Amino acid sequence: MPPTVFEFGYLCSDKDEGDVQGYTVIPDADFRYLEESCLTEDNSGFNQLMMPRIKRGSRLLQVQNFVGVIFVPSGNHIEVLPKTGLESEFGETTYEEARSTLLTMLQALGEFRHIQLDNAGLKSLKMPLLEVFISRFLDNVNSIVKRGLKRDYVGQEDNLLVKKGKLNMSGQLRHNSVTKHRFYCEFDEYVENRPVNRLLKTAMLTVQGYCRNHSNLKLLRELLFAFDVVPNSLHTKQDFDSVRLDRGMQYYKPALAWAKLILGASSPISMKGEAGAPSLLFPMEAVFEAFVAKTLQSQLHDGYSLRTQARAEKLVTHHVETGNSRDLFTLKPDLMIEKAGSPTCVLDTKWKRINPESTNKFDLSQADFYQMFAYGEKYLEGKGKLVLIYPKTDKFASPIEGHFAFSKDLTLWVLPFDIKKNGASQLILPDASSLSKEIICSAA
User: Fold this and answer.
1) Confidence class for position 92, pLDDT limits 50, 70, 90
2) Which Pfam family, any one of them, does this sequence belong to (predicted)?
3) Considering its fold, how many domains does the chain have in total?
4) Are residues 279 and 406 part of one domain?
5) Is the dihedral of CA 124, 129, 131, 137 positive or negative?
């Protein structure tokens, strides 16, 4: 099993002599590579991913709010799982629960809408996250092989014993001035060598070096045999730009989406180290926002519609004496509910823990309230409803009682979002509130 760390957890070197209890230990070479990378100014991807720390006498790297898989030059990888809001009944987050919840939420992202979590899939959650990704990718490629690889006419040049296609005179004079029994020809062949097939094969060869699961390796070998006549992609960006899924090729879409992620063409954050393999990392705020948006669509009363970051108002306008003006500081809420084209409710998702029993203002952030107040003034003109959405936890299982009033016409609710793996996820609403009566249904 690869080293596994939870969101905001710590990585330490296996050569560290300090107190490493509670930290995820990784090989010293991998630790030094990651440490040097996140201290390098021009490597902004790693700067976002982790921060160097010293704690209890140990040099550490604290993973930030990204989840997924980090590749390192040694050929190893590190699994990063979400922690916030994913506690078991015993107060601890298990790898299987966190992995399952993450995969459920990733289905809301466009690149991962092809993930299926059927009964067989749920059993595979004991596998490392990377093996789950590889399994889903190979299943989609296998579906293509069963239906048949699409062919295309590809221009060829060759020196043949029998004339085929059109004779290339310059090639004939160059190659066959002595061997006159040959023909240097230009011709088209109907072959599997088309960009989309080259990309799928290259993606399979990429994951081959990281795959350890026996079932995945067996299927991978079978699929590579089926792609034997297809060459590797020498220029993946050019091939992605050239891909055209013709009519009748829609069954290629899921596997192609995975290939884009594996080859680093569409990963939310793709960092290539010396190993040349991109890391598949996802910012949890974006994952949570996408999942809430997808679920909330079905929870609205008739007549209401949901927009996701559709508009962008500015906080202030800077005026100068010459008459010129410039808008500054973009205000872009995560979600907005509209009726007949007019905004009625602004919602913002926060992937954080809060505790309604806390004496410190429920563990709520004053900055978040300033942000919501600005949304209310700019988008609702000071009259309407605002909602802050946090993941449901054992301590935050129901809405904070009552609401917060910026004025008599501008009110805010703090609500939990229940993430369930059986498709019954929903935003939990306060009983008998104007919010549930007018805008959002109490059950999905």
Assistant:
1) low
2) McrBC
3) 4
4) no
5) positive
